[in-house]
Amino acid sequence: MPLLRWLGHAATEININGKKIIIDPFIKNNPSTPVKIDYTYDSDIIIVTHDHYDHLGDTVEIMKNSNKPLLLATYDLEKYLNESYNVPWDRMIQANVGGYIDIDGIKVALTQAIHSSEHSDPTGTVISSEGITVYHAGDTGLFEGMKLIGDIFSPDYVLLPIGGRFTMDPYQASIAVEMLRPKKAAIPIHYNTWDLIRVNAEEFSKKVKERGFKAIILQAGQSIEL
Q1: pLDDT in tens, 164-188
Q2: Does the keyword field hold Hydrolase (predicted)?
């Protein structure tokens, strides 16, 4: 049974098709996560949406301490990690915003995100396998292309930042849910890690319900079956 586990902030684990996928592995200095960094060492795939420290996180340490994970990020971010930290090219899956890439039976795509970053454009990601499709928006503001992401990928679950200030707030994220039209649920992420992004997730849940969709609020470390 596919599982999704929120690890706190934007860090998310998806277990699907026999693979452990970690998105944005910000673990070590993440005050909200209940797991230790070595929890990620047996990952099969690491996906990084952009290079801000709370998303790139512990990627370099993970790649250096385990020979198992493959890394998926934009080509330019991978180039930076190769040249600055000697992350080997043969363990990185070159990609950019576009269509699905098949990784051992798991389809992964990078999507547009409206945010900032230093070494490449920021992205979201879509993961699809076993009849389940999950969209993790990364860090982003609200943008009209979310409707297109919904049309193309038809997600079952969407994970959306709601912390405001650096990303969407609960109200804007509820609009994003309406544009994406998840078939099963919307899950808020990237909030309450620090005071600057402190919001009430129940506000998001209420607004999502008013728009005719379901929200699931997870505690850091909590899992759901997909």
Answers
A1: 999 999 999 999 999 999 999 999 9
A2: yes
